[in-house]
Write a structure and sequence with these properties.
transmembrane; transmembrane helix; Sugar_P_trans_dom; Sugar phosphate transporter domain-containing protein; 316 residues; 79% helix; membrane; mainly alpha
């Protein structure tokens, strides 16, 4: 590798990681600000805005600017599988946004850190794939940490907690389902049906919008009656909503690019650290009260996630 290529890589990878961090944490904090501090109480409509931006920007990135080659759908079966993924993905994002209306970001992230537990559970239930006992043992502090954090959370809300757990479970189920449906593992799909994550978003996002539009009309029928006057009173609301939606796509794009230029393992390690960074920033911004028990519980969960990742590597 030439020194020029090496220096470009030294700049590119940290830049992509910075974009990934800022996009993921930015969309999380803006979601919280809009839903809890701005009077914008429409999590389903907010998710539809995110998915609309993902659909439009995916088209620009792939079809117009050719950031990655276009991969075409090859069968009705493949489309139905992608649609199923889109519905599960919608459920996870909507559940997460609803929970932010009731819970502080710090506790939301603590619950979200239990994703490996649900992933292992669904992988066992759906694919009958079993891990070593050491790997399962590492999940004990993951769950125990959230139980402890729940007891020490001053702003605990049962409905918000249930929605957050549901969103976390849906996110884990989506990753297991994606592994089954969109990879060649076990010869479930022909080679021609495999999609990279950017092309997957190109097809998933429009389906998600079609699912979320009637859901918004039924569940949030007064959304326009509220947000138009709200936008007139707060002149920056539309800008925040636009930036938030663009960040939602940027989080998906940067996730793909970081994985492409580093590895899935690097992304996992960075993701563990990202949760802790998001917690610290959210506490500084929103000034939500925290307790020693809550911090101890979240720390235990993060340590459990790290141990789980190490156990999966060593005891395959």
């Amino acid at each position: 590798m030439s020194s020029s290529s090496s220096s470009k890589g030294q700049v590119l990878v940290p830049s992509l990681i910075l974009l990934w961090y800022s996009s993921n944490i930015g969309v999380l904090l803006l979601n919280k600000y809009l839903l809890s501090n701005y009077g914008f109480h429409f999590p389903i409509f907010l998710t539809m805005c995110h998915m609309s931006a993902c659909a439009l920007l995916s088209y620009f990135s792939i079809v117009l600017f050719k950031l990655v080659p276009v991969q075409f759908l090859t069968s009705t079966s493949q489309f139905l599988k992608i649609s199923a993924l889109a519905i599960v993905f919608c459920a996870s994002v909507v559940g997460g946004n609803v929970s932010l209306s009731y819970l502080p970001v710090s506790f939301n992230q603590a619950v979200g850190a239990t994703t490996p537990f649900f992933t292992a559970l669904f992988a066992w239930l759906v694919t009958l794939k079993r891990e070593s006992w050491v790997t399962y043992a590492a999940l004990v502090p993951v769950v125990a940490g959230v139980v402890i954090a729940s007891g020490g959370e001053p702003m605990f809300n049962l409905f918000g907690f249930v929605m957050c757990i549901s969103a976390t479970a849906a996110r884990a189920f989506k990753s297991v389902l994606q592994g089954i449906l969109l990879s060649s593992e076990g010869s479930v799909l022909a080679e021609s049906e495999k999609l990279n994550s950017m092309n997957l978003m190109l097809y998933m996002a429009p389906v998600a919008v079609l699912v979320l539009l009637p859901t918004t009309i039924i569940m949030e029928p007064n959304v326009l009656d509220v947000i138009i006057p709200l936008g007139n009173r707060h002149k920056f609301m539309w800008l925040l909503l636009f930036v938030n939606s663009v960040m939602a796509y940027s989080a998906n794009l940067s996730n793909f690019l970081v994985t492409k230029h580093t590895s899935a393992l690097t992304l996992q390690v960075l993701g563990n650290a990202k949760g802790a960074v998001a917690v610290v920033i959210s506490i500084l911004l929103f000034r939500n009260p925290v307790t020693f028990i809550g911090i101890a519980g979240y720390t235990m969960t993060v340590i459990g996630v790290v141990l789980y990742g190490e156990a999966k590597k060593r005891f395959k």
